[in-house]
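Bug: token stream looks shifted between consecutive jobs. Job 1:
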Amino acid sequence: MKLGIKLLVASFLILNTSPAQAAPIYNFPISGCAVTYGKYHHDYPATDIFANKGCAFVAPITGVIDEVNTVDRWRGRTNLGADRGGLSISLIGEDGLRYYGSHLSKIEPNITAGYKVTSGEKLGEVGATGSAKGTKPHLHFGISYPTEKGIWWIRRGVGLENGKTSPWKYLKAWQAGKDLKPRLIIPATTPPEPKK
């Protein structure tokens, strides 16, 4: 009897002392849809993730919503940099970095500045607003350091690691279910607004 109890206790301890499976810190920013994306973006370090219109854009990390643009003000004749994202959302992650998604077709009603989101929570839907009008639906995804509101040229994405690296390798890791924290160089002063 004592041997049976000892075996039962030992079995219980072995079965209940395995490492805990923690929820991922990072999530791929599009959920439930097939996607394609490349290593490079046309003229600055960001990534365009192509998916069907309406696919869910989700929070890549737990954090607080920083800026939300619910009105598409982009016009081809002016092509203002601040308006190119169309419907867009940025959030400050619990890792201290800012994550930005734009060209959305829809933003969830509860997503407002100051709202706390959890990793994987739906923020909006993929679209082609802003300067993406007339293109295939996609999520423009950028990672940057936090700045004052309205500094769109940083918000849209900056170079990671060596100052030129796109988010591609981080997206690949998150898509595979691996947590990989972006490494980011923060300059001593904010670069000036670009001419284009």
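Job 2, same session, no restart:
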Amino acid sequence: MTGKGHRLSTFAFVAGATASPVAAMFSLLGSTFPDSSEYLIFGKRRNRYHRRYTHWFVPWLVLALTCFNRAGWIVPRLSALIDGREAHRDVWACAGFWFMGCVLHILEDAWCGTVPFLRPWKRDIGAHVFKMSPNFGELSNGEKVFIVCSILIAAISLAIRTLTLKDLVHFWNLI
């Protein structure tokens, strides 16, 4: 996927799952790091190693779970980061969502290609659900559909989270 596609779908997924703009923003920031780290590690030889070591989900998932554990499994709150009470937990949660953005990047890449599963040097799992555009940075039609579906699922999830049982009973009585 393109960087734009990773950022949009990751933000939508995390926003829908957590209803937290802070968590969604930190996931967005981490969503392109597996590709960016290839430039840092391999430089000009990046294409030779693309979607190998940096796209192995295990280290990213371990880092995310470690951060979430240190945070006490909370969703970060902007108010706690500003006023400082228990802020260390929210900082750990932000780091956890940053690493979760890396994990989601890898899952998104598995939709349109192959990524490593058990061996970090070999790309061996993927679905090829849609093809990427041959033009650098351009969203393909399949990627656009994937992003729109991610946003719709997130919107439905947010709508369901905001409804209460009282709202559902009221809606049922109107019918």
